[in-house]
Amino acid sequence: MSATVWTNGAIVTMNDHQPVVDAVLTFDDRIVATGSLVDVQASAPAKVRTVDLDGAVMFPGFIEAHNHMLMYGLGLASIDARPNALPSIADLVGAIRDRAAVSTEGQWIVARGYDDNQLAERRHPTREDLDSASSIHPVLVINGSGHLAVANSHALQLAKVATDTADPDGGHIVRDDHGSATGLLLETAQELVKRHIPQPSDDDLYNALSACQQRYLEAGITSSHTAGVNSAAELRAHQRWSEASDHPIRVIMMIGHSMFPTIRDTGLRTGFGNDSLRLGPLKLFSDGSLIGRTAAVSEPFLDDPRDDNLGMEMMPADELNTIVAEGHREGFQVAIHAIGDRAIEMCLDAFQQAQSASPRIDPRHRIEHCGILRPDLIQRLRDEAVIPVSQPVFIREYGDGFIRHLGRERTRLAYPFRSLLDQKIPLVFSSDCPVSAVAPLKSIQASVKELTDQGTAYAPQEAISAHQAIRCYTRNGAFAGFAERQLGMIAPGYLADFTILADDPALVRPEQIDSIQVVGTVIGGELVYQSPMVSPGRAN
To answer: Least enclosed by CB within 10 Å: which of 329, 434, 435, 497?
Structure first.
């Protein structure tokens, strides 16, 4: 049993009744008192440790409310194909060729993160491009969105993708004028190839979570809503990792559709678990991606090979309605990936029908990404109490492509932060890692600046303040996970999870926000990460 006083820094609580305090008293993993140093010390036992923050700024722990921990951890061994690493197809081919030179013949080579909108050639790689890197290794290059990928001929042959191979439901094999696959696989068509990649072992999954945790701690993240646990092996890995780790990141596991019947039949529901690991929403997909132009939209994409491209639905509306109704009826929160306005409308209709058929108090259904909005959809989000879980860092990393494919008018309400907050909607921020950088400060900066990486103004009228953005990463993230009485604020009774920064994002120039040092990360009252560059203070 241990008591600690945290003081000598700016402590920003996100508690409207006590926004800033001088000191915090924690006892084991809970916050006991907040206020002036004199009052907090008066509440402390005789034997108490004091942590001197040395002028740093302490916030509630950042909650990464939509991300893919296993995908990120497993992907660390892949070739980094993000535009800043490999800016052209020629660079990508060179990196694959280098990897092939040190790989056993027949070994899979996977690269992740390319964006055709930012490649020098402004196009997707083709199987011929990848064949020029290696013809004796199966190669798969995954788009940054995760919703499309390109395979070389070897990989397509293993997957038996031929001229007569039918498109799977919710997917499309892109072909040339002669009917041959170009290598580009959209949405579920990727699985034709991915199923031939050797599956990770239990140890691989465990190690992936451990590697992921370290990088999340370095970013100041104390809680994660991981978007899609899809097998018993993945469930076991999360439990093993959570039990073996000292003060692990708190994880809410979204349950993929394939795992839902198994979980449902056990009688378990959203919320089962403990403070470290809990079951979260049923996770579904309704459409694709914006940068891949597979999001389900009501107006065609611009600058597209097809002038009538309205994106893709992952399932028909009646099927979505049925699954949502079952999840809702069985007591699950439901979280649906939806980026296009047509998909968002489908989700809202499904939630509305489910609630009408089986009324529940406060189901808190979520729309993950909730990208391309309209005024009527924003009003429905408010009126129907549906939570949008957004990713501001998309504007920074992919915004130029958004403008290219939507045009200026539709971009005004594509990821519209101020419009949502003005309607008192509990907007939640996240990264969708590994789709984007797992760095809350980058998302916070993006929501304040509304600039793309190339310096293009995105939607400046939708910019919000840094402290509003931090609230989206703390209090609102806790609310989305039914944890608002335990997380998201620095207040008595709450879990002692803190993010300690060298500066307050609200008090520096916007262009400096993403360079603020994460000084330390605290979970359950214990300092689990300390920057090697900056000391979080002294304990005595």
So the answer is: 329
- Residue 175, class by beta-carbon neighbours within 10 Å (0-12 exposed, 13-18 middle, 19+ buried)? middle
**What structural domains does the chain harbor?**
3-61+494-539 (2.30.40.10), 71-194 (3.10.310.70)
Q: Which of helix, strand or coil describes residue 105? A: coil
Beta bridge partners of 278: 252, 273
List beta partners, residue 229: 255
506, 399, 458, 283 alpha-carbon torsion, rounded to 10°: -70
Q: Which amino acid is at 426?
A: P
In tens digits, the chain (540 residues) has pLDDT values of 689 999 999 999 999 999 999 999 999 999 999 999 999 999 999 899 999 999 999 999 999 999 999 999 999 989 999 988 999 999 999 999 999 999 999 999 999 999 998 899 999 999 999 999 999 999 999 998 899 999 999 999 999 999 889 999 999 999 998 899 999 999 999 999 999 999 999 999 999 999 999 999 999 999 999 998 999 999 999 999 999 988 899 999 999 999 999 999 999 999 999 999 999 999 999 999 998 899 999 999 998 888 899 999 999 999 999 999 999 999 999 999 999 999 999 999 999 999 999 999 999 999 999 999 999 999 999 999 999 999 999 999 999 999 999 999 999 999 999 999 999 999 999 999 999 989 999 999 999 999 999 999 999 999 999 999 999 999 999 999 999 999 999 999 999 999 999 999 999 999 999 999 999 999 999 999 998 865 555 555
